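Students often ask why we bother encoding 3D structure as a string. The short answer is that it lets us treat folding as translation between two languages. Here is a chain of 99 residues written in the first language.
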Amino acid sequence: MTGVDAEIALLEYLVDLAEQYLGDIIEEVIEKYYSDKIDLSERYVDVLEYITERIIDDSLKGDENPEKFKKIVRKLSARPYVAKMLISYLVSEYIENYG
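And here it is in the second language, the structure alphabet:
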């Protein structure tokens, strides 16, 4: 596996972790607050990737460490109120940037 392939595989793994721990909350937030702006069936993966990348950039300072990332998304999923606020903010940011 080349360096680029390994990086893509790692990012896919991190997106899968975000989906596992935050997927239901992301869907709930989009359905409740942004259904008029985002078609969940068409853009869910894009939003999920955006949220994953933002968590990596902001919380991990760009470090794609799977264990640290998993710890963050697990903590967020254990605090749904905080997770909903963060996800709502990131979804609104996604809409601002990508319409």
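Translate back mentally: The chain has a mean pLDDT of 95. Keep this in mind for the problem set.
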